[in-house]
Give the backbone structure.
Amino acid sequence: MNFPLISLEVCVLILGLVVLVADLWLPVERKKLLGYAAAAGLTFLLAINLGGWGHCTEPGHAFNDMFVQDELSIFFNRFFLLSAIIVLIMIAEFSDQIAAGISEYYSLVLFSLVGMLFASSVNNFALLFVSLELITVSFYILTSFQRARGRSLEAGVKYLIIGALSTAFTVFGITLVWGTSGKFSFTELSPVAAQFSENKLFLFGLLFVIVGLGFKISAFPFQIWTPDVYEGAPTPSTAFLAIGSKAAGFALLLRVLFTAVPAITEQKVNVLIIISAITILYGNLCALPQHNVKRLLGYSGIAHAGYMLLGIAAMAGAKTTDGAAAILYYLSGYLFTVLAAFLVITLVMRHLDTEEISGLAGLAGRSPLLAGTMTLSMISLAGLPPLAGFFGKFLLLKAVIDEGPANHCYYYLAFIALAGVVISIYYYFGVVRAMFWGQAEETLPIKISGPIRVAIFVCIAGMFWLGVFPGDWLEVARNSASALGL
Amino acid sequence: MSTLTYIIGWPLLAAIVLVFVPRSYRVIMRAVAIGATLISALLAIKMFALFHLGLPGYQFEQQIHWVESVGISYHVGVDGINVGLVLMGAIVAFAAACCSWEIQTREKEFYILLLVMAGGILGAFASLDMFFFYFFHELALVPTFIMIGLWGRGERKNYATFQITLYLSLGALIALIGLIALYTQSGAGTFDIPALISYLHEPGHQLSSQSQNFIFPLLLFGFGILISLWPFHTWAPLGYGSAPTPTAMLHAGVLKKFGLYGLIRIALPMMPDAAQRWVQPIAWLAMGNLVYCGWVAMRQKDFGRLIGYSSVAHMGFVFLGIATLSVVGVTGAVVVMIAHGFLAALTFALSGYLYQQTRTLEIRELGGLLRKLPFIGTVLVMAAFAGCGLPGFANFIGEVTVLFGAWQEAPLRAIAVLACWGALIIGAVYMLRAVRNILHGPINARWDGVLDASNFWRKLPYALLLVCLLVFGFFPRLLTDKIREPANAIAQMAKPVMANQAPEGPTLSALHTK
C-alpha cells in the first residue's frame, strides 16, 4: 500500500475540510481571515515539503503502482502548493465581491489542489481520470462562483459543457486503450505500446485521452472555451485556471506521452509540431484585437500553451529530457508572471463591471507599484530579458532548434514561435501603454494590503530570479525532468 | 573583478539605487545618473590607456560560470576591436546622461531606464559569451522602447514606438535563432565566443556548409534589421525622430553597432564559407544604404529625419568594410563604427537641443540661428563636416580605410567608386544644405527667445563628443594599432587564402604616416 506517500494530498484534503467546518463557527466579518489561515496552512505544508520532512519527498510507488512519487511529481507538488497559496491570498482580497459562501470558495480551491497534487503523481489511467475529474468538477463551481453575475454563470456553463464533453472523450479513450491493450498502468503499457502503433482503435483511444488533456491546457483545437471562461470567471478562479489547471494538464500530458506510450509519441512527432504551431499562432493572432484584459490573458494563455508544446514536440523527437526541463522551467516562470498579472487585475479592477484594458488607464499615477508589477509581468510574458519568460523561451527554442538538423519541420516551428513572439509584443505593450499613457477616469490611490504586498513581491522576485540567475533552478528542472527517463 | 565588470556594473547599480530614491529628489537622481556614467567613462578611458598592444587574446578578462549545464558563462574581455567600442559607449552614455536635462516629467523612471540601457549596451560590447551578448543587448533594447513611448515627441510617437519595437524585436529574435542554431550545430556545448571559435577551427569541427548557409543569413538579416541595413532601415528615421534626445544618442550612437559587432565577432570567424558566398550581396545592400538612403536624406524637410537617414547611410560603410573580409576593410569598419558612434550621438544631441529651443525641426522654418546660437551652431557646423568625411575627423579615417579595403578587392571596385560618390557628394550636399538653411540666412523673429548652451554642464557633452572625434581624427593610430591584430586574425579566419596575399602592411602604414 505504501500509504504515507500520499500524506501531502491527505493533509491538503483535511485542510479543505477544516476550512469548511470552521466556517460554521466563524462570524461573517472574520471569514476573510480564513483564506489567510488556509494560505498559512499550505505555506506550512510547502515548508515541510521543501525541508524534506515526513514522507512527502520520498520517491516510491503506492497503490499497486497507480501512484508514483518521483522528482517530477515532487516538483509539481511544490508548484501547485505555491500557486494555491497566492491564489488563496487573492481570493481573500476578492472576498468583498462574493456575496456568500466565501469559505466554500477556499475549500473548493483546496479540493482542486488535491486533484492537481494527485495529477502530478499519476501512473495509471484510472487515477488520471479521477484526478482530472476532481480538478474539473471543482472548477465548474469555481468559475461560476459569482452567482449574481451573468457573465460568471455563463462562464461556468460553458466550462461545464465543454468540460463534460472532453471528460466523455477521455473516458471513452481510456476504455479503448484498455480494451485493446488490457493495460491500465503506464509502467505496464510502455513496453507493449509499440505493438499497438498500427492498431486504429488503440490510437483513437490515445487520441481521445489527448483531447481531454488538450482541453485542460487549452491547446488548439480544444481551446474554444478559454477566452469566454477566463473573461467571465471571478479573477482568482481565472488565475488558478490559468496556472494550476494548465500545469496539471502538462504534468499529465508528459506522463502519458513519455511514460505510457513513448514509442507512439516518437512516431507522431509531426502531429505535435503542427498542434504546437497552430496553437501559438491562434493564441497570438486572436489576442491582437482584444479589449478585455482577462480575455487577452486567455488568448495569451493559449499561446503560452503552444510555446510549452514546443518542449513536448522537441522531446518527442529527441532522446533527451531537455524539452521537459524547458517546460518545467517555463511553467515556473509563468507561475510568477501570470499570478502577478492577476493580482494586479484583482486589486485594480474587481469593482469594475468588465475588465477592459482602458480600466487600467492611469495606473502609473494611482499606484506605481502595481503599474510596475504589471509592466514586468507583460515584459516577462513577451519573453524579453531580464525576466523569467526570456530564459524559459530561450530553453524551449534551444530544445527545438537542437532537433532541427534531424527534422527540418523543427526549424519551421522555431520560426513560427518567433512570429508568435513578435505578434505578442504588440498586444502586451498595448497593456503597458494603457497604464502609462491612458487618461485615468479614477485617480484615487489603491490600497494594497500586507499579504497582497508580500505576494506581489514574491512574484517580482521570482520573475527576476528565474530570469537573471537561471542556473540553480534549471538544475532542479533537469533533475525533475529526468524522472521521465527517456 | 575586472575593470570591465565595473564599467558595466556602475550604471546598473545606480539604476537599482535610484529605485529607492524618493521621487522629489530630482537633483540627486540626476547626480547619481551622471556620476555613475562618469565613473564608467573614466574607467573605460583608463582601460583604453592601459590596453597592451601586441598581447594575443583578450585583456581585462573575467569569467564566471552562470549556467554550467548549458555552457553559459558571464565572460567579459576586450581585444583591439571592442576596447574602442566600449570606450565610445561609455563616453556616449555619459554625454547622454548630461543631455537628459530636457526630461521634465517622471524623471525617476527615465533615469532608471537610461542607466539600464547604458549598462546593457556596455555589457553587450564587453561580452565574450553569445548568451550574455544577446541578453545585454535586449536589456538595453527594452528601455529604448519604453523611453520612446513615454517621453518621445512628435505626432507619430505611438506609431514610431510600435514600429521600432516590432522591427527590432523581430531582428533580435531572428538573430537569436541563428545564435542558438550556431550553438547546437557546433556541438561544442558552449556559448563562449573564443572557445567556440577555436573549437570550430580545429580540424574536423568546422560547421558543415549546409549549416553555414542556414545560419549565416539568419545572423546577417537578424543583425541587419538591428543595424538598419537597407531595405530594413525604415524604422530608423522615424524612430530616432520621435525618440527623446538621450535615447536617440545612445541607440543611434552605440546600440545600433551591436549588430555590426556581432557580424565581425561571431559571423565572420565562425562561418567563413558562407561569409565568402555572401560578400557580393552584402556589398550591394551596403550600396542601398550609402546611395539610396543618402539620396532620401537629401529630400528630407525635417532635420531629425535627415540625420536619421544620414545615420542609416553611414552604416553602409561598415557593411562595405565587412564585405571586404580583409584586414584593411575590417579595420576601417571598426573605426567607422567608433567614429560614427560619437558623431551620431553628437548630431542627435544637437537636434535635440534645437528642438528643445524651437519646438520644430522643419528646416524651412529655421534659419539664421548661428547668430543666436554661436556655440551650438559652431558644433553643428563641425559635426556636419565630420559627417561629410572631412579630414581631421575620425570619420574620415574610417571611411577612407574602408574604401582602400574595398578597392583592393577586384570584385568590389565598382562598388567602391559608387560608395565614394555616395559618401562624398551626396553626404556633402545634404549636410551642407542643412547647415545653410538652419544656421545661415535671415532669421525669423520667432526665434528671438532662443538661447545658446550657456553653462559648463550644458556645453560639456557637445564639447566632449567633438573632442573625441578630433582626437581620433588626428591620432588614428590610437585605434588602428589596436584593431589591426584582431582584424587580421578575423580576416584570416574569414578568408584563409586571400588574407595571406593581401598587402596589409603598406596601406595601413601609409595611413599612419599621414
Remarks:
- The first helix of chain A runs from residue 7 to 25.
- The first strand of chain A starts at residue 60 and ends at 62.
- Chain A touches chain B at residues 379, 384-386, 390, 394-395, 397-398, 401-402, 404-405, 411, 414-415, 418, 421-422, 425-426, 429, 432-433, 436-437, 469-471, 474-475, 478 (CB under 8 Å).
- Residues 270-486 of chain A form one domain.
